[in-house]
Amino acid sequence: MAGIKEIAKITGLSLATVSRVFNESHLVSPKTREKVLRAAEELDYQPNIMAAALRSGKSKILGVIVPEVNNFFFSGIINGIEKIVSDSGYNIIISQSHESQEKENEALNSFLKLKVEGILISISKETTDFSLVQKILDSKVPVIFFDRVPNLEHINSVTLDDHRGAILATEHLIDQGCRNLVHIAGDPKVSIFDKRRKGFIDAILKSRHKNIKYSIIELNADVQNDIGILQKTFDANSNIDGVFAFGDEIGLHALNLLKTLDVSVPEQVKLIAFGNADFTNLTEPKISTIDQECSQMGELAANLAIKNLQDKNINPQTKVLLPRLIVRDSTS
């Protein structure tokens, strides 16, 4: 495979000059740059970006960590990040934590070894020790948190108003005449799920309707176990007429469980979820949901990262997106 030695040989330039071209040095004239790039194209030469990063300390790479890539929400965020980064001259490396703090820390350490210039991260469900993250922040590597944010001071973050989203979902059920509500809740140790739980309760307590009953349950996507949980919930209160699921996937799971129990949606029970994943518009009935504005979240996070790279003295910023109610057949 051709290298810079071959390029130097056919152009008659020094190795140092050829190297400066690929390192984007301002010391190289446009004519020389064009000559080197033309030779590189003829030789089908591809510069080793990682090697250049180790030499120069400038990788032009941003590291992105998400809990799961195959999750609609996080894939939407990645699309938003790529949209901005692709126009900025940077590249991204994506890693998954699989909801594990250990894997998250491994990814962070790998990024540091690769000399990424910035990190965008949504923390895992397991993460409670932020010492490594704090060490990175102290080193002045820009870190942008999105969706799931640690309780740390002076950080850049882009989040959704999850509390408000849960209020919108719950108020919609109440407006549709529901008076016996169930919230299928997520892990309360995860801040976004805890906010949705609190939003559900606050909407009921602040409602002008004072005769609303409610309960909170947790499902785990184990069909047989969850059928039992849902059956017990309906046995304890046969008048349940509204269900708010903390996420779209668990909402779809709940829809299938209700069908198994011969409970008709929306005639007997109205169902709303959270996320606005593509499949919610393809189910029967189509699922009402809360749009999390995932692509916009990714774009804002990427823009924040680039601003921090351009200005090291910029103050940390907190951006909060407003959720949007999407009404479909499951509640109408």
Descriptive account of the structure:
The chain is α/β, with parallel strands linked by helices. Helix 1 crosses helix 3 (30-42) and helix 8 (162-175) packs parallel to helix 9. Strands 2-1-3-4-5-11 form a six-stranded parallel beta sheet, with helices on both faces. A four-stranded parallel beta sheet has the order 7-6-8-9, with helices on both faces. The chain has a two-stranded antiparallel ribbon with strand order 10-12. The termini are far apart. The chain folds into three domains: 4-47, 434 Repressor (Amino-terminal Domain), CATH 1.10.260; 56-161 and 294-322, Response regulator (Rossmann fold), CATH 3.40.50.2300; 162-291, Rossmann fold. It is 44% helix and 16% strand.
Compose a concise summary of this entry.
With 332 residues, the chain is α/β, with parallel strands linked by helices.
CATH topology of the largest domain: Rossmann fold
Total separate domains: 3
The SSE string, one letter per element, is: HHHHEHEHEHEEHEHEHEHEEHEE
Poorly predicted runs are: none
- What is the level 1 CATH name of the largest domain? Alpha Beta
CATH architecture of the largest domain: 3-Layer(aba) Sandwich
CATH superfamily of the largest domain: Response regulator
Q: Class by helix and strand content?
A: alpha/beta
The largest sheet has its strands arranged as 2-1-3-4-5-11
- Mean pLDDT comes to 91
Q: What separation lies between the terminal Cα atoms?
A: 63 Å
Question: Notable features of this structure?
Answer:
single chain; 332 residues; alpha/beta; 434 Repressor (Amino-terminal Domain); Rossmann fold; 6-stranded parallel beta sheet; 4-stranded parallel beta sheet; 12 helices
